[in-house]
Amino acid sequence: MAAKPVEYNATITHINLLTPTLGIFRVKPDEPAESFIPGQYVILGLNHEEKGGVMRAYSIASPPYLHNEYFEFFVRYVNHPTSDNPLTHLLFAAKEGDRIMMRKRIQGHFTVEKTMGLEDPRLRVLVASGTGLAPFTSMVFEWYHQLGHARNSAILYGASYPTDLGYREELEAVLNRSEHPRFLPSISRPHEAPEWDGLTGRVENHFSPEQIGFLEHQLGLPEGGFNPENCTVMICGLQGTIANTLTSLLYRGFVPADRKLRRVFGIPQEVKPTLFFEQYDTTPIIDTKDEAVVAELVERLRAAGVPAGEGAKAAG
Ligand SMILES: Cc1cc2nc3c(=O)[nH]c(=O)nc-3n(C[C@H](O)[C@H](O)[C@H](O)COP(=O)(O)OP(=O)(O)OC[C@H]3O[C@@H](n4cnc5c(N)ncnc54)[C@H](O)[C@@H]3O)c2cc1C
Q: I want to staple 221 with a disulfide (CB 3.0 to 4.6 A). Which of 65, 70, 225, 284 is the partner?
């Protein structure tokens, strides 16, 4: 039976395909939309002729100051969807002028306001792979518009090829304004892009014990300075990026905000979080049922001076 169709209330006004499977889509609601906080997301919906309606969450990539003009979304066409009516297949078949549903209610707590706070003076390290960049473009473009600077933020951004780097020029303009560039894209398939002279490898690899020293140097931090005293971290994207960044940063004493991980690691409530993430897929971040994995990660926290392990146990 076909799913209930969604009711269209907005128009796709502009489509910019970076590649056939990666695009920036502008949507203008029929009625003036409410503003939002950078980092939030909305539900978009489309109808398939036979299969009916489908709705999915998308981070808003554009800054709030443009909300009366349009909302922008950075979307990847999913080659191997898990549903039988994937939204991305409908979206990538759409043309400018086509209709779409954008739910009025704007959602989400992955905002600086709801995490470390806007006034936190530490370097804010924003880590993304692929379309996980979206919340961070909204943040830095808004701050730059309001303040003329990006609130002490750096973006580390992983993509397969240079052509997959969305918003590259705009981010360079906003973030690379001092001696130490704060827009650090990393390409995981550099052998297919001989002209690339920036960072290489998956973005999460730059946080490994072997590579973090180089990252510190790039960011203008002293040796050992990538720590919770100097930095906070926000990560957005798929499980692999989040898990590998997080587990590497436990060595440096970064404390996740995620309630389940805190419980499993036995982190006391009073220990303030310094690492926040938003996940686009549903794969568990780590296998919290594996006692050996949990014990090893707790040990990393303890070695970094975090009072973890009190009552820690693998999730049953
Ligand atoms: C809060 C939130 C915000 C999101 N924001 C964005 C966004 O800004 N841009 C975006 O492209 N997606 C985003 N997503 C994912 C999005 O909601 C859909 O899951 C995705 O577009 C796939 O939908 P689908 O119907 O085409 O495929 P489905 O049939 O639902 O297939 C799901 C499969 O797609 C994979 N997948 C999901 N998202 C991605 C992705 N971004 N890149 C590669 N594979 C993916 C999953 O691992 C899963 O295997 C977000 C998800 C959440 C929960």
A: 225
